[in-house]
Amino acid sequence: MKQQINIVWFKRDLRVNDHAPLFHATSEGRPVLPIYVIEPQYWQQSFASRRHWSFIHDCLHDLRDQTDLLGQALIVREGEICDVFNDINYKYTIKGIFCHEECGNNWTYQRDKAVITWCANNHISLHEFPHNGVVRRLKSRDDWAKKRHSRMAEPLIRAPEKIPSLKLEFIGEIPSVQNPMFGDAINGTVQTGGRQAGLNTLNSFLTQRSSFYIQTISNPRQSEYHCSRLSAHLTWGSLSVREVVKAVKKHAQTGNFEHQGNQKRNLTAFNSRLSWRCHFMQKLEDQPAIEFECMHSAYEGIREDDNPTFFDAWAEGKTGYPIVDACMRSLNHRGWITFRMRAMLVSFASYHLWLDWRKTGYHLARVFTDYEPG
Fold first, then answer.
1. What residue spans define the domains of the chain?
2. Tens of pLDDT along 15-51?
3. Which class in CATH covers the domain with range 302-367?
4. Cβ partners under 8 Å of residue 96, min gap 6
């Protein structure tokens, strides 16, 4: 008789703390297989890039260390997700798959639908848990802020004391950053990923860098230091939004500031940005068609004439407009720029160069380390 197991499917939630799927899967007593699946088809999409993988690569090594300390190291497999689950179900009896809901793009949505169908056909329970501040099947946006704030106020979920283990001969290699599967080479630097890097970044923001957050948030040079730089950690889940919200609140209450000034005001402003982040992800959850369609149908078709010369000049930072070019070159090299400069790059492409946002959006998705579809 095959051994019964639970699976924890990691996606954009690469941590063991404040992780509801992991906590509930381990609470049932049966062995747990924590798994991350590298899906080659995903990495062929126009939004995916090696820069993303470089950050994820760091997170997976960190996550493997965390899970190993709990008794069962992270398993890494490569392939189409349902094929991977089929292979596991052939060797074991999967009783439940535990994962977070993902507010992604159409590709991940179709993938998740395929998993739902596969689970139903194989009589396997799929347990999906809310993630970030996105509320699935929300009937009215009037209720969103209340539900989101209530979720952020809930206690953090502790990491399990132990992951009931399986005796596995092969846990799977984490592909290198140089693996050709992940697309073009990185022309620049990549922010360091992983849980510890995220905690260090959060601590330095709270105790030092946030002192001039409001004053420098629009400055493309100074914002690189004084903004939180947590966006990639929130995107790929080495930190949860709730962890950051609670850390900000706690620090604001202690008054333990290296630079007093208006730091409480700075932290309040930052907390509002965290809420806005969830707000825009919720918009995509509620209106998934905006990935491909204009929010107002009257604007469809007015930018369909392709202009590769303008696009290349914009994407390479060679338009001749100094502030635009400097911001794009910095973004291409570092994978991050403050959100107001992101807005400027998009508006310049759309209104000055009359480029289709669907094409420019893919370029930005690839260069952002913190690419979040919403």
1. 4-131, 194-285, 302-367
2. 999 999 999 999 999 999 999 999 999 999 999 999 9
3. mainly alpha
4. 6, 7, 25, 28, 124, 125, 126, 127
